[in-house]
Structures
1.
Amino acid sequence: MEIKKGIGVSPGVVISTAVVLDAEDLRVPKRTVEPGQVQSELDRLGEAIGAAVVELNTLRDQVATRHGKEIAAIFDVHMGMLKDKYVFQQIIQAIKDQQTTAEYAVSVVMRRQAAVFAKMKDAYLAERVKDIHDIEKRILHHLIGRKRQDLAKLTSDVVVIAHDLLPSQTAALDKSHVRGFACDVGGRTSHTAIVARAMGIPAVVGLGNITEEVNAGDTIIIDGTRGVVVINPDEESLAEHREFERKHARLEIELRTLRDEPARTLDGEQVILQANIEFPHEVDDALEQGAEGIGLYRTEFLYLSKETDPTEEEHFAAYADALKRLHGRTLVIRTLDIGADKYREGAESSERNPFLGDRSIRMCLHDIPMFKCQLRAILRASALGDVRIMFPMISTLIELRQARMVLKDVEEELEDESIAFKKNTPVGMMIEVPSAALMASNFAKEVSFFSIGTNDLIQYTLAVDRTNEKVAGLFCPAHPAVLMLIRDVIRAGSRAGVPVSICGEMAGEPLYTLLLLGLGLGTFSMNGPDVPEVKKIIRSTTMQHARDVARRVMSFDSERQVMHYLREETRKIIPEAF
Ligand code: PEP
Ligand code: MG
């Protein structure tokens, strides 16, 4: 048994079987074979090594012709390793002694070999670790590469262990069988964390090297509430976590009874609870959890799940689908927010500082045809239901005005073509950059609504990369500077009669519900599974109490004090919450 501590980013406990995705998605199942099959595993190993040698020969010749013999010499090194009798004797022995599959034996022996090299003082030898991993992957490709199990077609429940989940991998997952995630890297608002919360499954990220320590088929406990992962737990640990799993399930059942109840405080203040989605079909689950509409549709997933930009028709079909499922409820469509941590696989940014670079609305304003294509589809969809347009990452008034001008152009084009759309479709903006928060009263004159994106607002206010596990401890919604910005945006909105929502992860964290309510927030947009717990808190308090809590919180000067106090107050309502 091994216990690993990481960052719990989606609550709950799950006990299940591991599927390990390495950087190339190769799964190395830990499986034993019948004694009669040992010879066939040895044959498979021989064939895979033979194929790898042929492949290396071809590569070496190609590289030598194009780049010269010196560069091609790396393949000679690999070839030498491939033919290393000492290593292969160990693999053969492992298959014979432990009766495992060839791929498992290759993986175990090569990783052991890599660990020996990694400890060497000689820098040249230590560097050879990468070559060993390279060879391991090459052989595994021949052994299992072609019969890779498709993650889109899982047949039983699993937990996914990955270095990090790429958005494109998430898009392809068969979500019905994925019960939890554990990743080497990531922070509270990294993509994996958001997806896990949206799916309502436990997740722990920032675990360092979990992909190296878990073998496919291992039993894993993922405790997203406490940020712990247990590899191959003993009986005692299993029993303890099963009990916790049961408690959590009971709380969920209790909360579900609130689905059709209004999000109203004891003294009658009505609040709007909406959900965030990345795909139209998620609307159903969101409504099931009691959401009253969609406050954030992250449309970039239309771009991330395929290799080419979506066409206007594809955009339109997705929006029409979401609206149909919403039956007249609100749909806030956020325009493309690609870049920084959200890229297509293989199309990562070459910018030195992508979070401060050409992302989101900036990218749209640099590619007007692409931007217009999306805006045309959104406007066409506005004829079908309650659509609102939201621009992300606005940092200057000029940017907002430019985006609105492009929208105006598109409206005129549609009019000329006699295509139906709703005139005066509400246009709002995200407040997720400190410059926008500080100038909220200026922006308020030019938009119909604000939605505070706390994930980015925290990142840019505190200078903490939201996806970097090394600084995850500094990423904190409770930081007084962040709270002051939120308070001021809510005030600016209220003075100008512009409704304010929060759609960052903070909106769905029960710890902050009383505070946000007390600061005067009227709309919360969160992952569907968070709705019931937030609703329970709202229904259990009065505005007077929430305002008192907010006043007290705003008098603190450290995030520690804020969190300690909020934890105490929230536990009075939901003792099992933390
Ligand atoms: C945010 O930044 O808070 C937000 C909701 O947007 P995203 O997480 O998609 O950047
Ligand atoms: Mg954002």
Note: Residues 516 and 550 are 7 Å apart (CA to CA).
2.
Amino acid sequence: MRISVIGCGYLGAVHAASMAKLGHEVVAVDVDPVKIERLAAGDAPFFEPGLPEILSEAIASGRIRFTTDMSEVAGARVHFVAVGTPQGPTGAADLTYVDAAVAALTQYVAPDEFVVGKSTVPVGTAARLAASLSEAVPGATLVWNPEFLREGFAVQDTISPDRLVYGVPSGAAGESAVAALDEVYATTLAEGTPRLVVDLATAELVKVSANAFLATKISFINAMAEIAEVVGADVTALADAIGHDARIGRKFLNAGLGFGGGCLPKDIRAFQARATELGVGESLAFLADVDAINLRRRAHVVTLAEELLDGDVTGKRVAVLGLAFKPNSDDVRDSPALDITARLHELGALVSAYDPEANGTAARIHPEVHYVDSADEALRGADLVLVLTEWNAFRQLDPVAVAGLVQNPVVIDGRNCLDRDAWTAAGFTVRGMGR
Ligand code: UGA
């Protein structure tokens, strides 16, 4: 099928390459000429395992084309909208890019074609866009097909997702939209992926409520960590124990620095803002606590660092391992690790920070921090070590070798990812989160 994808960020670039991988003929559009040039040359503009491979494969097969010229979408049957919806100044989602993409697309969409929203939007957006699309192009249909990909697993999550959700209008238009999307995802559906057909508002809500639930689960365990810290209990053992209850489940119960990234933090804020607009703000009042618990984790680590450095970080050498918001990513948007690093620097600590992939993205936001090229370089002479992103390379560090590099064997394990016994045996004072 001929497909267009508007927006070549994390979501759009992966979606476009994955659609080509599934055998479709794809034209991918973005307003940023530098991004388009890199993608066209097979150079992924961000770190995402598996993306360079499917991108090169798609380019070699001739099934993908990258352009800044929106008119090239003409002739595609399905047009995916995958642009960003960043957090606006009030916390509500900024829909400028979605509105602009749909307006620009409308000029080239023909009747019987489908505009498929993938961006995360406030509930009600799809109905508004559907109305303007059908006014401009009678016979064209707008549907919402939210995306649930996780960075680091984006290719796998796109090609073999847990489920597909189609938000469609009722009647014949909805039926043909389902048929078109079934054709797009034929390979995925053949693997037995569950497919749920719902209305537009439900599809929009599925996405934001899934992220709100995940954020709540993480903040729940971090709230337990706060209590465990006071009473001397171990939140990891607690998570293991409650996680055995299948109704609770062990996934997303890792206490630590909390959630960051380009999705969960902004999505829970946008969801609250939308609920308030709709007059049901109280229903999501708890998300303010979810956000507050999450942000307290960062402050807690800074306080802990001060405590371990005798009350004052000024002039102390602090080794930071990890800047990305999670491993296998170079994304530092709202990253707890980078936030803590910048605060320690601001307080006067002599920070040496290292991340296997995110030094460059971090330096763009916080150029004042000193970044180094290896964990060893960061660790040399350190008065305190902070492990802030649970990269495998950090989990696997040999604590005996690390002890030989640092000045003071004290480590804050911000992600509870180190082997505490091994580090303690190597002479370290280990401070975990909620343990
Ligand atoms: C999240 C969702 O997991 C995806 O399903 C969704 O599609 C995506 O947002 C989106 O809306 O686009 P992502 O932002 O890639 O995906 O990251 P997650 O894997 O959800 O991790 C988010 C944050 O939570 C990270 O900072 C991670 O370190 C933290 N986290 C995760 C914890 O602190 N504890 C956990 O147990 C799990």
Note: The chain has a mean pLDDT of 97.
